[in-house]
Amino acid sequence: MRVVADLDKCQGHGLCRMSAPDVYGATEDEGQVIVKFSGDIPEELEDGAVLGVESCPEIALSIIED
Ligand code: SF4
Q1: What is the pLDDT of residues 22-65, one digit of tens each?
Q2: Is any ligand 1 atom within 6 A of the Cβ of residue 50?
Q3: What's the CA-to-centroid distance between 22 and ligand 1, angstroms?
Q4: H or E segment at 3?
Q5: Per CATH, which fold does 2-64 belong to?
Q6: Backbone φ, ψ for residue 46 (5° rounding)
Q7: Is residue 66 a contact partner of residue 2, using CB atoms and an 8 Å limit?
Q8: Domain residue ranges of the chain, discontinuous segments joined by +
Q9: Which atom of ligand 1 lies at the shortest distance from residue 13's CA?
Q10: Does any ligand 1 atom lie closer than 6 A to the CB of residue 23?
């Protein structure tokens, strides 16, 4: 499972990284999301990754199942 971010939608609220700080970070300037894993999310972090996707009010995060 991967997560991709649409930075045109991300408003930098930070709810995703509050839900799963091991999966989501933020740029220093505008606070836009950084998905810490460009490939598969480690299995033990998948639940948090999904929580982060569900917490985003801008629907900027998408799950991609391989
Ligand atoms: S919750 Fe959504 S809009 Fe907010 S920083 Fe995360 S991806 Fe961006």
Answers
A1: 999 999 998 999 999 999 999 999 999 999 999 999 999 999 99
A2: no
A3: 15
A4: strand 2-5
A5: Alpha-Beta Plaits (3.30.70)
A6: -65, -40
A7: yes
A8: 2-64
A9: 4
A10: no
